[in-house]
Design brief:
This protein is mostly beta strands and 760 residues long. The chain is built from two helices and 67 strands. Strand 10 and strand 11 form a beta hairpin.
Length: 760
């Protein structure tokens, strides 16, 4: 009977946990819809996006991802190639980094990335000959000794030994051929001194020899090269039979690839794929995938099917019918703003530049629900930059556009678009629909407050009765760009005036339609002596104690008495002073702090422009974590937003290279113990992570005892969550048995006991 109970508990846990990650673990949330390269081994087909690689198992027919979280050293993949001879996957990056993946291990060669090379370092293609890999790079050619796993030499083959952008290399009849942006070059492959640029010759007997050549391949004893002729807006493929060059095909479409596959020649254009037989006759053209337009980049043939790396459709398998294969994820990796509500993660996929101008990304929202990403599209607007979720209904939310006003969604479907024609929102160009909105927040009475930039009445509210009103507030913030808006515990509303404008605060005293009792104030961020610390504000958040934390161009500042903002004496901001060893510094004083999030233990997550992410203690004086792209799976050191799932403790970092999350130990505490659960439970012999106790009252004491009452471990909850590594105070794994978890707050008024089965 006991064994049956254990199995039932275990199955319930498996069902609940689904694909969640453990405390201290990372997972990326990247797109694999936009693919650029494809290669194969005897067992797998590999496809790459700029964010990473996924592979398709030919026999099991499943897919797995290979990313910075699961083995790669970087993001920004620019090329891949699998060598069946050496059983290695070569991965090149746009920053010059190189990974060699073999037997689930990754060897990183970072010499090019670290080298002080001026200009483009991208790894554009791999070509293997003998035991060497020839890398086509943005500055020349690099040769890697595959057996030694190290760089052998580099070739600068441009005029007088200068850099030249090399697109691709191949071998034909004793010569290495290089397709570059400045012509087609060749060198005797037996020459032992290819480092000398004199041994690389520009081929001049081909028409327009100084144009860009972006592709080349050997097929049916001929060399085929593609020339991009911008003067005539065409691509010309030339055929070389080792004697003369002849024109093979002339087309206005950009040739992205030329491949020799399964005794056929494939020409991959920007909108079609054309197949030629050994007699060089065109035998098939693919221009669409039924209802989807073709946007191919690369192709291979396996098992009588075409496998296509497509920009927008993922990996497309074509054998008369179509199959679309890629891991679940957002449609793109664009991520500007992220919000979490009721275990649902929302991403606004637009952007704006540092001057607060449009970058014109099509309207897209991605949401993560029940471990699945889904995408919402609205091509009538651009640059969606913020999301606000209805606190009573997580499928009802609003999004701001930096060009198209406000979008309202219900049941994850677009139900309304609000602009100058149907609301109090105004356009920056009267008579034209160009409505710039950034900040939005819902108050306790279900009124939606919006910042509407560049117009005379920039504070707008959509009231709970669906009527609208706008406010000028004396014109003190009229015609300015406005950023985030928050509502504090004392019902004041604070908003950012970006690019050196400081802050603005107001309170309508619960009477939206009566402006006579409204109070407002434009705020300079000053210290206790009245001196301006800085007015260049990037982020704002209120912590659990009601203090206001600001991210600025000079680190972090705090208002510890924000409730006094409208009083006669006012309030001032303070910088946090931290001491590390013998050094005393102001918290993040040299950093631009672009994002702030407060976790369930009142700890502060700070995102920066260029230095990654910091987790600080509740008072900001102790550094707990500092994650960077160099010391962690973090995708980029440039953080645009941070959001926390307070139920699980998972922290989502929006970066300029996509979205990634980390499961921290702090969750938001509960009012009681009604939702406490422990996982994994039971703890199996092969489990080596932290056991997590969730749903606790904030900061309770947690004691773990054996069934006889002997204490084996004691800790304090971090917010609403406590963790245990399954070891005793002496560091030994506990024995098989049932353990009791005792939870109690400081005064003993709230207590709880639960059980945990440990199988060693």
């Amino acid at each position: 009977m006991k064994k049956i109970l254990v199995v039932i508990v275990f199955l319930l846990f498996v069902k609940y946990s689904n694909a969640q990650i453990g405390v201290g673990e990372w997972r990326e949330h990247l797109s694999f819809s936009y693919l650029y390269s494809i290669t194969q081994s005897s067992k797998k087909i590999y496809c790459s996006s700029s964010e990473g690689v996924f592979w398709y198992d030919k026999s099991a027919h499943n897919i797995n991802k290979l990313t910075k979280v699961t083995g790669l050293s970087d993001v920004g993949v620019s090329s891949i190639f699998f060598s069946d001879e050496y059983k290695i996957l070569l991965v090149g990056y746009s920053n010059g980094n190189i990974d060699i993946v073999k037997d689930n291990n990754t060897i990183n060669i970072s010499d090019i990335k670290r080298e002080a090379i001026i200009g483009d370092k991208s790894i554009n293609d791999f070509f293997l000959k003998d035991n060497y890999a020839y890398l086509s790079c943005g500055f020349g050619i690099v040769v890697i000794d595959i057996e030694k796993m190290e760089i052998k030499e580099s070739y600068y083959i441009g005029e007088n030994g200068t850099q030249i952008f090399v697109n691709k290399l191949t071998y034909y009849n004793g010569f290495l051929y290089a397709a570059t942006k400045n012509g087609l070059y060749k060198a005797d492959s037996e020459n032992s001194n290819l480092v000398d640029y004199h041994n690389w010759l520009l081929i001049t007997d081909i028409p327009n020899d100084d144009k860009e050549f972006n592709n080349l391949v050997v097929f049916s004893n001929n060399l085929f090269v593609n020339q991009i002729n911008d003067d005539f807006n065409n691509n010309i493929i030339y055929k070389f039979d080792d004697l003369i060059w002849t024109e093979f095909r002339n087309d206005t479409s950009l040739v992205r690839n030329i491949k020799s596959e399964d005794e056929n020649l494939f020409i991959v254009d920007e909108n079609k794929i054309e197949k030629f037989n050994t007699n060089l006759q065109s035998v098939e053209t693919l221009e669409s995938y039924n209802l989807s337009a073709a946007n191919p980049y690369d192709i291979l043939v396996y098992n009588n099917a075409w496998w296509i790396a497509d920009k927008g459709n993922g990996m497309v398998k074509y054998n008369g019918s179509f199959e679309f294969i890629y891991p679940n994820g957002p449609y793109t990796s664009d991520s500007y703003s992220v919000k979490v509500s009721d275990d649902i993660v929302f991403v606004a996929a637009g952007s704006m530049n540092s001057a607060w101008n449009n970058v014109w990304i099509n309207g897209m929202i991605f949401y993560f629900n029940n471990e699945q990403w889904r995408s919402l599209f609205n091509y009538n607007v651009h640059d969606l930059v913020n999301i606000c979720v209805d606190p009573t209904n997580s499928s009802h939310f609003y999004a701001t556009s930096w060009e198209g006003g406000i979008l309202e969604y219900n049941d994850f479907k677009l139900v309304s678009t609000f602009d100058e024609t149907n609301s109090a929102l105004q356009s920056i160009y009267p008579g034209q629909n160009f409505v710039r909105c950034k900040g939005l927040v819902i108050d306790d009475d279900n009124n939606l407050w919006i910042t509407n930039s560049g117009i005379s009445e920039p504070i707008v509210v959509k009231k709970s009765d669906n009527t609208w009103k706008s406010f000028s507030y004396g014109g003190v913030i009229s015609n300015m760009n406005l950023g985030e808006i928050i509502i504090t515990q004392d019902k004041n509303k604070w908003l950012i005036i970006p690019r050196g404008g400081g802050l603005f605060a107001f309170n309508n005293n619960g009477t939206i339609d009566n402006e006579d009792d409204d109070i407002y104030k434009k705020i300079n961020v000053v210290n206790e002596n009245g001196g301006i610390i800085t007015n260049d504000i990037y982020s704002i958040a209120e912590d659990l104690d009601g203090d206001i934390w600001l991210g600025t161009d000079q680190g972090v500042v705090v208002y510890f008495s924000p409730e006094n903002i409208f009083s006669e004496e006012g309030t001032y901001a303070q910088q946090i002073v931290i001491t590390i060893g013998d050094e005393t510094n102001i918290l993040l004083h040299t950093e631009i702090v672009t994002a702030i999030a407060i976790d369930g233990a009142n700890q502060k997550w700070f995102g920066t422009l260029g230095s990654g992410v910091f987790l600080m203690s509740d008072d900001g004086t102790e550094e707990i974590y500092h994650f960077t792209a160099e010391n962690s799976p973090l995708l980029s050191n440039n953080i645009t937003d941070i959001a926390i799932n307070h139920e699980s403790g998972e922290v989502f970092f929006s970066t300029d290279k996509g979205l990634i999350s980390y499961r921290a130990s702090a969750t938001r505490g509960s009012e009681d113990f009604r939702d406490v659960y422990v996982y994994p439970n039971p703890v199996r012999p092969d489990f080596d992570g932290d056991i997590t106790i969730r749903g606790l009252v904030s900061d309770v004491n947690v004691k773990i005892t054996d069934i006889s009452g002997n204490i084996v471990y004691e800790t304090q909850a971090n917010g609403g969550q406590a963790t245990w590594n399954g070891k005793t105070f002496s560091g030994q794994k506990v024995s098989t048995g049932i353990y009791l978890v005792f939870c109690s707050n400081e005064d003993g008024t709230k207590t709880f006991i639960t059980k945990l089965l440990f199988v060693k």
